[in-house]
């Protein structure tokens, strides 16, 4: 073994990215390439009654305007959000109703502005409330989770509990906003389709395009050489790739569709708003007797997507009586979809905030409360955990953070106009893995080539897979070459659910392990073509497990709340994780820190509102949807335990891309309460909400 796994190896593509030579989907400059710009619907519900393209076609450089009247016909997609330009229906504002194709991006944009669309409008409803008359309990929440799970009699147990907390929380709509917007370049050649796209899984894109255009999959090549982030929004094909392929077929030229950022909120998914009600009943010793988590969310009228926000409560704490329920209302809104740690991020914010409130009611340290409710098995399934070191994360984090010196009384630390406080929250994320294929080749010159259709969305997948390969081969890392990001490579699962490295690494490990054994048995020099092996983890990676497999973590936050401006500043963020074997210390820390930074945004700056009259998200670009920057956190640290778990995959690894966001918002919210004595239950914790809370607290004290 070379010892490559675990080392803080630099990203292989890093120099390409900082040097500007890494090619993204919009940077494939085929001869004759045209640019396209979509036209979004300007009504919230209705039908297109007319498309006037005369002024658009008069714009110099405009080649054509596609609409439902002349666009290529597609087979009915499994995903209704991809049925673009196929009929007159407008299910929500921002739905694409036309596409202008031109010689240049500027001409396409000018042409799109000149298209005149008329509508027959209908009344719309976009406002989510817990008592909405259209709310229903679906069969499943996202991920195939049952919408309802119940054990014992939680209502009776809650009513007879010595200490009770009954609280409601609200998480607003959130948007993914990757640095690279959704972009695709498509080209047709003699009935063959080549697509360069910004996607988390080219295999899924190829399968979708084959079905839509009635092509055998072998006549389609999809590549994602480099991807500028996705956070879930590129986990499935989006309208950009379908529009690019349609426009390229219609014009006979290569076409690039790069979605304008202001369009993303309406067409590439979002984290749906969630309304939470938590009821926690405990004995005087702090042990939970009853746990009820009810989550209500919205979905679109054309595609059901139910944020699985109550699912984490089925994993975290021992309670003999429990109920978790998901409810949803179908509204005239864009279809929600995956966003980093779907379910866990909003669900754990609510659960961990409620646990903090319970600790306050009990007069108990919030870390001790969590420790006392540590389950011996997974509460929902009854399965033993493959490994669970949450208590160790809490203890280690407390030591690193200096928790022992904390005065538990809210509002006691002050620095001039600043109120200071600290908070803690736990985190969890499931271990997911999917079958993949990989090939490995030993060359006569002593180098190795490993090929797999993994997608590196900026996480350093190329580098980590090379480390796994090098260790399995017993070869120096510099001798291993990795090819990823094309459907011409052995098929692999998409990059999502923190499952990428666990899935791809398993296949790479198996292929390289087989190759190492062949090399050990091979006498003399290698043949000119080298030695070649393949691996397919179907039947093993997707086999069921007798164990509940999850990663866990603990988040700590220190905040300063300005009593004059209402501004919340985070001085320190600390995360400690138990996420299996860490395969690359450098890229792992980057993922943890990135997730924590995203959680900081969720807590303090990020939030979207739906305009009930207009039927659209009002924060649709980065001028109004505020993501955190370096200055928003003074210090941020990520650490992990050396966790051994042989029940996962050959590497013993768990996913790390999402758990960093899961507990951060709750830790910050709990710290704000500790600083001020004010419990704010709606995110983000903006200055206006903080000042209102401080004023109400002063008024209550005066009375």
Which labels suit this protein?
single chain; 703 residues; alpha+beta; seven-stranded mixed beta sheet; 28 strands; 25% strand; globular
Oligomeric composition of the shown chains: single chain
- Helix amount: 25-40%
Question: Quick one: overall form?
Answer: globular
Which class do the helix and strand fractions yield? alpha+beta
Number of strands: 28
Radius of gyration: 26 Å
Strands in their spatial order, largest beta sheet: 3-5-1-14-11-12-13
Poorly predicted regions are none
Could you tell me how far the N terminus lies from the C terminus, measured between alpha carbons in angstroms? 71 Å
How many separate helices? Answer: 16
Main beta sheet strand tally, sense and closure? 7 strands, mixed
Mean pLDDT over the residues: 97
Strand percentage, roughly?
Answer: 25-35%
């Amino acid at each position: 073994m070379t010892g490559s796994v675990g080392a803080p190896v630099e990203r292989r593509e890093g120099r390409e990215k900082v040097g500007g030579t890494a090619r993204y989907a919009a940077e494939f400059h085929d001869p004759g390439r045209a640019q396209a710009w979509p036209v979004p619907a300007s009504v919230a519900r209705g039908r297109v009654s007319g498309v006037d393209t005369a002024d658009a076609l008069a714009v110099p450089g405009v080649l054509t305007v596609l609409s439902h009247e002349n666009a290529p016909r597609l087979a009915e997609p499994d995903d209704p959000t991809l049925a673009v330009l196929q009929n007159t229906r407008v299910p929500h504002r921002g739905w694409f109703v036309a596409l202008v194709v031109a010689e240049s991006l500027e001409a396409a944009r000018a042409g799109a502005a000149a298209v005149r669309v008329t509508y027959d409008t209908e009344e719309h409803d976009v406002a989510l409330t817990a008592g909405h008359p259209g709310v229903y309990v679906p069969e499943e929440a996202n991920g195939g989770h049952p919408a309802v799970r119940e054990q014992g009699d939680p209502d009776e147990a809650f009513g007879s509990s010595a200490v009770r907390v009954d609280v409601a929380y609200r998480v607003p709509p959130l948007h993914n906003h990757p640095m690279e917007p959704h972009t695709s370049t498509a080209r047709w050649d003699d009935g063959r389709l080549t697509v360069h796209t910004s996607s988390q899984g080219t295999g899924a894109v190829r399968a979708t395009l084959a079905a839509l255009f009635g092509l055998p999959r072998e006549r389609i090549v999809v590549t994602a050489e480099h991807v500028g982030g996705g956070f879930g929004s590129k986990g499935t094909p989006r309208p950009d790739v379908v529009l690019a392929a349609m426009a390229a077929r219609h014009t006979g030229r290569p076409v690039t569709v790069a979605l304008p950022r202001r369009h993303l909120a309406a067409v590439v998914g979002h984290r749906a708003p969630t309304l939470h009600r938590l009821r926690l009943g405990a004995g005087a010793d702090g042990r939970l007797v009853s746990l009820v988590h009810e989550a209500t969310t919205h979905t679109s009228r054309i595609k059901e997507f139910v944020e699985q926000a109550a699912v984490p409560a089925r994993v975290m704490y021992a309670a003999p009586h429990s109920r978790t329920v998901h409810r949803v209302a179908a509204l005239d809104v864009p279809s929600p979809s995956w966003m980093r740690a779907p379910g866990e991020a909003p669900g754990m914010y609510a659960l961990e905030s409620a646990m903090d409130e319970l600790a306050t009611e009990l007069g108990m340290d919030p870390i001790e409360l969590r420790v006392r409710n540590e389950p011996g098995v997974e509460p929902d399934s009854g399965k033993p955990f493959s490994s669970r070191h949450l208590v160790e994360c809490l203890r280690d984090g407390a030591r690193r953070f200096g928790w022992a010196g904390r005065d538990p009384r809210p509002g006691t630390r002050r620095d001039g106009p600043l109120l200071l406080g600290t908070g803690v929250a736990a985190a969890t994320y499931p271990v997911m893995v999917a079958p993949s294929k990989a090939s490995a080749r030993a060359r006569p010159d002593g180098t190795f080539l490993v090929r797999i259709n993994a997608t590196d969305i900026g996480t350093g997948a190329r580098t980590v897979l090379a480390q796994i390969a090098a260790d399995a081969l017993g070869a120096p890392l510099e001798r291993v070459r990795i090819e990823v990001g094309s459907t011409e490579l052995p098929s692999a699962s998409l990059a999502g659910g923190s499952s990428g490295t666990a899935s791809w690494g398993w296949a790479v490990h198996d292929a390289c392990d087989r190759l190492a054994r062949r090399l050990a048995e091979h006498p003399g020099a290698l043949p000119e073509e080298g030695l070649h092996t393949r691996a397919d983890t179907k039947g093993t990676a997707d086999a069921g497990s007798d164990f509940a497999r999850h990663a866990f973590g603990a988040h700590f936050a220190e905040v300063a709340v300005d009593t004059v401006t209402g501004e919340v500043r985070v001085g320190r963020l600390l995360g400690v994780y138990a996420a299996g074997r860490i395969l690359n210390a450098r890229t792992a820390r980057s993922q943890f820190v990135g997730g924590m930074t995203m959680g900081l945004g969720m807590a303090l700056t990020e939030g979207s509102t739906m305009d009930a009259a207009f039927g659209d998200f009002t924060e649709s670009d980065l001028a109004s949807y505020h993501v955190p920057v370096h200055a928003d956190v003074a210090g941020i640290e990520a650490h992990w335990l050396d966790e051994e778990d042989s029940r996962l995959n050959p590497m013993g690894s768990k996913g790390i891309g999402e758990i960093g966001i899961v507990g951060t918002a709750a830790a910050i919210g709990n710290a704000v309460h500790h600083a001020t004595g004010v419990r704010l239950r709606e995110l983000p914790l903006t200055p206006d909400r903080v000042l209102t809370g401080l004023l109400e607290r002063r008024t209550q004290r005066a009375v």
